[in-house]
Amino acid sequence: MFHSPMLINGVEVPSLSGKVEIIHNPANQDPVAEVCVGSRPDAALALQAAKDAFPVWSGTSSQKRGEVLHAAADLVRSRLDRIAQLITLEQGKPLKNAKGEVRSAADALDFFAEEGKRNFGEWIASSQSRSIVLRQPIGVAALITPWNFPVDLLAWKVAPALAAGCTFVAKPPSLAPLAATEFVKAVHDAGLPAGAANVVHGPGSEVGAELVENPISRKIAFTGETETGRWIMAHAAGQIKRVSLELGGQSPFIVCKDADLDAAAAACAQRAFSNMGQVCIGVNRVYAAEEIADEFTAKLVERTLRFKIGNGMDPDVDLGPMFSRAQRDRTKEHVADALGKGAQLLFGGCEPEGDGYQKGFFFLPTVLCKADHSMRVMREETFGPVAPVCKFKTLDEAIRLANDSEYGLAAYLFTNDLKTAIYASERLEAGGVGVNINNVVDMQAPFGGWKQSGLGRELGHQGLEAYLETKHIRLGL
Ligand code: NAD
Predict the structure, then answer these.
(1) Which residue's alpha carbon is at the smallest distance from atom 36 of ligand 1?
(2) Are residues 299 and 411 in the same domain?
(3) Is the pLDDT reported for residue 462 higher than 90?
(4) Domain around 340
């Protein structure tokens, strides 16, 4: 069985306690790998290594750092098959999607390799002085990530941190640490000084907490649940640490009466069900104009029937298992709650039947109609493959319902009218609005949430700024 050590100070190491755990495949419960499990002292060692490496890496020119990041991107691409396979085996998503995730992670390294060179300062001439404004790397960054995109979401942090001149300690998700660790190892192997890139495995309550509370870390970049983000923000406050938080979502998808219904149904099905709905910007609530709601919903069901469900290692599969029993149980609870409150089941709502499904956490993509805001599925983060449809009469009503949420990560709108597109997208309370597109992620643009979906931005040039501090040097004349 594959063995996954941690990476501390450039060396692959077991944990200080010697503890190991087995990672299982969510498609069939087979053991995939044995992983070394650290605790607070391991995290403290890694932070010290990152601190020791900081003067060397931050003192390296941005051009040289860019060269190393490009080499890292190449190395990640050369190890793509292995890293992608680990994603599928530990997380469940189809191999074709896992490969796309690793490609995107390599692209992030390339993007920030160049973006790091554009960390320009300012020169300000005053009457009695001249001012130079510098943007310098914050220091050691703690990078804490979830299991739904274990490599990509880490790459969004690793790439700008290194490009800015920071060193880091990564803490991958406890139940899916394998691919993320291989990704960081590839980045390290591209020519980083020992200690610039570290990985520690272990529970969030121990390893994560040490990374947050130890005075060595100066920046916490976190993606995960809103509740965990709240804890991190509170505990980082003690030392006024910089935090970036990418948290939960409850994304609305509005279909206007003038929308291209085929395009909207395809986009909705893909964004609601890919990765089994375990996507922070996944579609959670659908609002369809009453004039077209029935026609749209029929098209959505038709699209949903097309997905092939199975073990992600099968090249024909579109949807794998859910990540864990807990994820599937929560999804079932939300569906039962909605049905109990008057929603109607149009497709799914249960596990698929047949050979190959018994041992895994499989669930059918589920379409509901007659949904309303009394239902948990419309208010809480299901993080599962459920698309509940609700009819609306006016655009203002749709916008009001879309904004009736504590979350504000992504919102989608399908319309063929430019005025409607501008009117609605200016009023939707979300960090990203997709108009006639079902994805608000673009490497060159900022990504992040409003309200309880987060704080700060990743990607774009804002993604680099998240790892920089501003310094004003005033020269007397
Ligand atoms: P989670 O919050 O349970 O865990 C995320 C990471 O935090 C894990 O590595 C975990 O071990 C660690 N952690 C847990 N407790 C900690 C603590 N006290 N201190 C420090 N670290 C701690 O989230 P999850 O279940 O792995 O991921 C799913 C969640 O992530 C969903 O809510 C989803 O919406 C969110 N998410 C958000 C985005 C985004 O960009 N906004 C992207 C993907 C996922």
Answers:
(1) 224
(2) yes
(3) yes
(4) 251-443
**CB-based contacts of 468: which residues, under 8 Å, 6+ apart?**
119, 135, 136, 137, 138, 164
- Whether 226 is in a domain gets the answer yes
Residue 289 counted as domain residue: yes
**Please, which residues have CB within 8 angstroms of residue 187's CB and are 6 or more apart in sequence?**
72, 75, 76, 109, 158, 162, 197
We report the CATH number of the domain holding residue 260 as: 3.40.309.10
> Is the Cβ–Cβ distance between 156 and 141 less than 8 Å?
no
- pTM value? 0.98
How far the first Cα of the chain sits from its last, in Å, is: 68
pLDDT tens digits for range 316-364: 999 999 999 999 999 999 999 999 999 999 999 999 999 899 999 999 9
Q: Which amino acid is at 309?
A: I
**Residue 229 CA to its chain's centroid (Å):** 13
CA distance 103 to 100: 5
pLDDT of residue 1: 78
**Tokens standing for 254?**
């509005």
Cα separation, 170 vs 140, in Å, equals: 11
Q: d(Cα 360, Cα 342) in Å, to the nearest integer?
A: 30
Between the CA of 222 and the centroid of ligand 1 the distance, in Å, is 7
Give the tens place of pLDDT for each residue, 2-31. Answer: 899 999 999 999 999 999 999 999 999 999
Coarse DSSP helix, strand, coil percentages of the chain, rounded to the nearest 5 percent: 40, 25, 35
* In a shared domain, residues 64 and 138: yes
User: Ligand 1 in contact with 147 (CB < 6 A)?
Assistant: yes
Q: Which atom of ligand 1 is nearest to the CA of 202?
A: 11
The whole-number average pLDDT for the span 57-68 is: 98
Is 448 contained in some domain? no
> 343 with 293, same domain?
yes
Residue 205 belongs to a domain = yes
